[in-house]
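Quick one, C-alpha cells below. Sequence please?
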C-alpha cells in the first residue's frame, strides 16, 4: 500500500479496525544526505535546514487503534 504525507483511511492488518492512520515525522536517509551535502559545500549555517523542512522528513504511518507500524511515505 502506498502512503502519502497525510493520514489515510485503512483497515489495519493487525487489529482489523477501520480507521485513519496517525503520523510520526522523523529524519531519514534523505534528510541526512542533504545535511551532508551542505557540509561538503561549506554551508555550515544551513546544515539544520533539512531537519526543519517537512519535505525532507519521513512520515511513518501507524494504526490509530493498536499503534502498529503500517508503512512510510515514499
Amino acid at each position: 500500500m502506498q502512503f502519502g504525507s497525510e493520514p489515510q483511511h485503512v483497515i489495519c492488518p493487525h487489529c482489523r479496525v477501520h480507521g485513519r492512520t496517525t503520523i510520526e515525522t522523523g529524519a531519514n536517509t534523505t534528510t541526512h544526505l542533504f545535511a551532508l551535502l551542505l557540509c561538503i559545500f561549506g554551508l555550515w549555517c544551513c546544515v539544520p535546514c533539512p531537519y526543519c523542512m517537512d519535505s525532507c522528513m519521513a512520515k511513518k504511518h501507524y494504526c490509530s487503534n493498536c499503534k502498529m507500524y503500517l508503512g512510510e511515505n515514499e
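The CA atoms of residues 25 and 54 lie 8 Å apart. The beta strands are 9-11, 18-26, 58-63, 69-72.
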